[in-house]
Design a protein that fits this description.
This protein has about 130 residues and is an alpha/beta fold. It contains four helices and seven strands, in the order E-E-E-H-E-E-H-E-H-E-H. Strand 1 and strand 2 form a beta hairpin. It is globular.
């Protein structure tokens, strides 16, 4: 599996450099998501700009990443979806489950906003505990 990974303080970006997200690479992608979770990454941007085709095992790996991030208190954001991939996600009604944004920059911003909201909520909860 060919991909580029960039790790930041609050998230990691994975850009898949494959045309197909299918049974050939899905297990490796799932393993990468698990490895990121193991080292404490809870927010992931998955850039699918080069992906032209996704099968059911590819969708499964994306859902695995979504579950891993959610369980860790973070989010997964997909970006740069090819129209065919976006249509498959919509037909599967996964557009109601997954966070999808047009660009990587917007995805990064969404994660940072979610992190800020969590911090504010955590601070608000601790103030209430003091009363």
């Amino acid at each position: 599996m060919k991909f580029v990974k960039q790790s930041e303080e609050r998230y990691s970006v994975i850009k898949l450099l494959e045309e197909k997200l299918d049974t050939r690479i899905s297990p490796q992608l799932k393993s990468e998501f698990i490895n990121l979770n193991t080292i404490g990454v809870k927010n992931i941007v998955l850039n699918l700009e080069d992906v032209k085709y996704v099968d059911s095992s590819g969708l499964s790996s994306i859902l695995t990443a979504n579950r891993i991030c959610s369980t860790a208190g973070g989010i997964l954001v997909l970006c740069h979806l090819n129209p065919h991939v976006e249509k498959l996600i919509t037909i599967s009604h996964l557009n109601n489950v997954l966070n999808i944004l047009p660009t990587e920059a917007e995805s990064r911003d969404a994660i940072l906003m979610a992190e800020l909201e969590r911090e504010i909520m955590d601070d608000g909860g601790s103030d209430e505990d003091l009363d």
